[in-house]
């Protein structure tokens, strides 16, 4: 099962990001219902492995934290592949990511080795869309939004379809509000 762990965004934050997407004149926009902060992409995993991971994640009790979006960016260098809203790094977010990485290792999931760069993908680009990205990035450089308290994260299944992916929440995990 193709899956990932993510922070769901409030309807208000998704609305703000949808407004931001309207200013991007290129690419395939991410459906507002699919806007999220990916904590870890798990790729294809057997159901038994995801069940074991569920047990591990249920034991985690990292603290809840405030989430802030600051600025926009893109991935892909000279030929950008995606445009995103940047998530402001925080110690609590990094600690959550590390705790999840440890839990995945305990159940035998080998994650891709890449630096954690929290973001919300706004659009996926085709090579000819690159020229439209510059004006968007400079025009929205000052973007800022307080996304609110993160009190949970979820395990999602991702089903790829020609019209775009569909995500299904499989399980949710509460953060401690101490």
TrEMBL record:
Motif (HXTX 2): 119-122
InterPro entries per UniProt: Cyclic_Pdiesterase, RNA_CPDase
Entry GO MF terms: 2',3'-cyclic-nucleotide 3'-phosphodiesterase activity; ligase activity; RNA 2',3'-cyclic 3'-phosphodiesterase activity
Gene3D superfamilies (UniProt xref): Cyclic phosphodiesterase
Active site location: 36 (proton donor), 119 (proton acceptor)
Enzyme type, top EC level: hydrolase
Short sequence motif HXTX 1: positions: 36-39
Recorded catalytic activity of this chain's protein: a 3'-end 2',3'-cyclophospho-ribonucleotide-RNA + H2O = a 3'-end 2'-phospho-ribonucleotide-RNA + H(+)
Family matches, as HAMAP family: RNA_CPDase
Protein family membership: Belongs to the 2H phosphoesterase superfamily. ThpR family.
PANTHER family to which the protein is assigned, alphabetical: RNA 2',3'-CYCLIC PHOSPHODIESTERASE
Protein function: Hydrolyzes RNA 2',3'-cyclic phosphodiester to an RNA 2'-phosphomonoester.
Protein name: RNA 2',3'-cyclic phosphodiesterase
Organism: Falsiruegeria litorea R37
Taxonomic lineage of the native organism: Bacteria, Pseudomonadati, Pseudomonadota, Alphaproteobacteria, Rhodobacterales
Gene name of the encoded protein: ligT
